[in-house]
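Subject: mismatched residue count in predicted assembly?

I count 686 residues in my input, but I want to confirm that the predicted structure covers every chain. Input:
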Amino acid sequence: MDLRPTPAEVDLADRARAAFAAGGAAPSSTGSLGELVAVARELGRAAVPSRFHVDVLVGLLGWGAGGVPTVATEVHERSGTVVASTVPGARGADAVLVCLDDERLVAVDPAAAAVELVDQPTLADPTTCRLSMPSDVAWGAAQAAPVGTARARAAVVLAADAVGAAQAALDAAVAHVSTRHQHGRRLGELQAVRHRCADMAMEVRLATDAVLDAAGVADRGEPEEVVRLAAAHAKAAVPRCIEVTAGAHQLAGGQGVLADAPFHRWYRRARAAEPVLGSTRARHAEIARAALAARRP
Amino acid sequence: MADFRFPPDCEALRAEVRAFLADEVPTDLAPFSDPRDLTGLEEGFERRLQAAAGERGWLSLDPVHQALLTLAAARADAPLIDTAMTLAGAAVRRFGAAHHRSLLERMAAGEVEMCAAYTEPGAGSDLGAVAATARPEGGGWVIDGTKTLVTGAHKSDACVTIARTEPDPEVRPRDAMTMFVVALPHPGVEVRRLETMNGWSLGEIIFSGAVVGPDAVLGEVGAGWRQMAQALAAERSGMFWLGFARHVLDLLVDHVATGVVDGRPMGEDPLVLDRVGRLEAEWSAADRLARRVIWDSAGDGVEPALPSMSKVVATELLQRIAVAAVEIAGVEGLVWAPLFRGGDVPAAAGGRFAWEYLERVHGTIGSGANEVHRDAIAALATDLPRVAR
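Triage response: the counts match. Full output below for your records.
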């Protein structure tokens, strides 16, 4: 029943915040989910591009071949073709680890003749590509990898990124309405504005704790199905973060839609994890099925 | 590393509560039902159960074990919640003097029923507007005024109440009031029932020149408003709302697991799965928040906004669960029956979903309207400018 961050997590968060502010890379950690979450929250807050999440996933997949790989997680197969619709940084990568199912991946050279890449930037990442390759080529070179466990844990770290973005958006919105005067008073004195901020603060609290809980469950070494369910709850908290970043935009008003204003960076960022997390409906269905299965007699 | 689990020593209590509910509470509670009581059960049965809980030391647990008991009892729909300790315990425990010790012991033993009578017709969210008065006379006090919307007044052996003891209207409410414990029944005090929209009753307590002794004062003369604020904060971990929410969500999951619509299992309907999954995620989130309130209160101290957050989150979740249950169950979900009516009601969850749909309206109003809590959250959890209240 201890909810305090460890000294290592606090220290790592401090160093990560400083590093991201200076345009640097993520500080290294022991790789516990608690520590990765601490870094990811700062990354989301800074809303800067980083290889951090890809590297986390690569590490969790146990990939040791070196180079600069990227990972394709949302993979579909249709008419003899394997398609990964949103692969981050595929063009510059030495290899793409295409996750075929919960237990297998195939490592492909993005420049190989059998691999087709089409630039397909998302609203959150300009480097994403659509990758396709013949199914027989993909499955022919498939190798065993802990894809399911890696994705569940990576999802917690990605959710932490969204939590960081939401917290930063809330802080910036509160700062804005606390100084902006309209109708002779500060916006932050208006009850409609204050209640919106209260709701946003609640959403951030709830989302943060879903992520911290999932990290704790994984780091304690709970059974895999318990970790997966906790990860599903962390993923299900991401819509709260999206809601907060949207609320921050509303509070920021007209100036907030300008490219130089920071709000759109958090608004985009909160959706950056979607290609790895899967759809909101899939998460809810996963949680509902677990509840139906665990029904008391 | 964040650990939201109850501490290991709670497991023994969990097992005891489970055994108690299985052995001491009949499966069929219909013979003991009383639709006019909030708990749905008649007073004699409730008092026996409360005494049994008191014997086991369950009415004087520390906050962490108390939370576990509350959650387990509410989840099982067992009436161990609506006790003197829940409603008035915080005030008597914190502010009672030596002469209140025997009352506290009898509360802990489950021997007395008590209620908290703060609200007045003109003082709901704004308890600073309390108009009841107590004037000193012959060493004691004479109380006049009307308290309303009092949970459990009709069965209470005593009430905790608050009245203005400072006649000067210029003195601010926070320095003008005093808390009292008044035994019931009492000369000059009338208790009436007010029927609620869902069939059970709240109470109205009318003080007409009620004379009480000096030992009726709870805490300090003039400190009542501040004491009341502290006592109310103790209500707000939200654990009992969450226990009820868990119970109704369990009923909804059962309904979905066994339901069939147009020849297809309800549990395969993607829209139903989406809604149930969302509510499960929301329940878990609310549960974590309530635990954070309790754990942090027992540890280094809780962020001041969190109890209000927990109250808002839990009560609004209860409403969403009730609405979802009625909508998922369809027309069958609209059939209403009082609690513990028995198994003969041909309706979704025995008429419980419709009961919940009506019942959960008041959760967002009582214990401080959620709007008031949002004011508090905005002030305490953010750096927004200060505003006058």
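Chain A touches chain B through 52 residues (CB under 8 Å). Marking this ticket as 'not a bug'.
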